[in-house]
Design brief:
- It is a single chain.
- The protein is mainly β.
- The protein folds into two domains: about 110 residues, Immunoglobulins (Immunoglobulin-like, Sandwich); about 220 residues, TolB, C-terminal domain (Neuraminidase, 6 Propeller).
- It has no helices and 32 strands.
- The protein is elongated.
């Protein structure tokens, strides 16, 4: 998703030129000449930071100049008749459309559209942590989701024919309750909202909702891949393996989405999710790091690198990566594990995970 080129609207001028023919020739030879208008506007760059000022250069001066960014009227500053500046407010990231329209000296109405990629203006901070304890974890569990609820630990696993929803003793790794998914379903992220458990599937496009005793309550359809799942006080949050995050109601009505960027560009392969004190934490697939995301802007503000926790002699070092984040609110600790890892780790995060009231854990 890098290097978006400016897209311009072209006005085609078509002229038909008939060839001469004598009075005995009924055939007419016609040729078409197409001339494309040069771009109306040029961007000084194809990418910028969220708090930068975008510079536009007009090919010709225009009257009644209008500029829209993502279909909203933009604040503009004119340096001269051919140079326009658009200061960004820093609140959003992603690919922005810029539409410029106006009247030429001959009163001809023209319009041009360009695109620019806006990345985060924040350099992610390094999250400092301490390892408090190490507990057993089932090496047969291809972990896709992990969550505490009322002191109990729940886990969702993947792989067709092996996918399960489980209630696990976090201290011993013992499976206290388990429900297998049908073989055609590859289990993904889980979350518990109120008294219901939600479990995504990877490519089936189905989310299963269970009661706390693992009885299937309802099945929902969605039209992306399913990867990670968590929730706020009102909304379910879903990742699909890209840098896009989706928001759903508890009945899986689509409410909106956002994209995630750090200061270098889009952060893709977002996987298992966990909401912690107003921030969204996400595993980045095929890595051993967790990113901390501002839920309103989509900006990555912190990064937790857990490479030192990766167990030795994993079956497949490429696929058996970190995946599983569970926040124990009572303890103020994070529990993390990975796909087929033999260990579940309890971490203390040092002065980084801000709560909504500014308190540090």
């Amino acid at each position: 998703m890098k290097g978006y080129l400016s897209v311009v609207c072209s006005i085609l001028i078509v002229s038909w030129v008939g060839s001469g023919c004598d009075r005995n020739d009924r055939n007419t030879d016609r040729s078409v000449k197409v001339q494309a208008q040069l771009p109306l506007v040029f961007l000084s760059t194809t990418s910028c930071a969220a708090n930068d000022t975008i510079q536009l250069t007009l090919k010709q001066a225009l009257r009644n100049l209008d500029v829209f960014v993502n279909n909203e009227t933009a604040k503009t500053l004119m340096k001269d008749s051919l140079t326009v500046f658009i200061p960004l407010d820093g609140s959003r990231v992603g690919v922005f459309s810029i539409i410029v329209s106006g009247l030429t000296a001959t009163n001809r109405s023209i319009r041009d559209t360009l695109f620019i990629e806006v990345h985060s203006d924040i350099k992610p901070r390094t999250i400092d942590y301490q390892l408090l304890a190490t507990y057993p974890h089932q090496t047969t569990s291809f972990t896709q989701g992990l969550e505490f609820h009322r002191g109990a630990l729940y886990e969702g696993t993947g792989i067709n024919g092996q996918s399960k929803l489980m209630k696990v003793n976090p201290l011993t790794g013992e499976i206290e309750q388990s429900k297998a998914l049908a073989e055609q379903h590859f289990g993904e992220g889980i979350t518990i909202f109120g008294d219901k458990i939600y479990q995504l599937t990877w490519k089936s496009g189905e989310c299963f909702r269970y009661t706390l005793d693992f009885t299937l309550d309802k099945t929902f359809r969605y039209y992306t891949q399913g990867w990670g799942l968590t929730h706020t006080d009102t909304t379910l949050i879903v990742s699909d393996g890209s840098n896009r995050i989706y928001f759903y109601s508890t009945d899986f009505d689509r409410l909106g989405d956002m994209v995630v960027y750090d200061d270098k560009g889009p952060v893709t392969k977002l996987n298992e999710l966990e909401m912690v004190n107003g921030f969204l934490l996400a595993n980045v697939w095929e890595t051993n790091r967790i990113v901390q995301i501002e839920i309103k802007s989509g900006k990555v503000v912190g990064e937790l690198n857990l490479i030192n926790l990766v167990p030795m002699n994993l079956g497949d070092a490429r696929s058996d990566v970190l995946n599983g984040i569970a926040f124990n609110k009572k303890e103020g600790t994070l529990y993390v594990t990975g796909k087929n890892w033999p260990a579940l780790y309890k971490l203390k995060v040092n002065g980084f995970l801000n709560s909504g009231n500014g308190r540090l854990l």
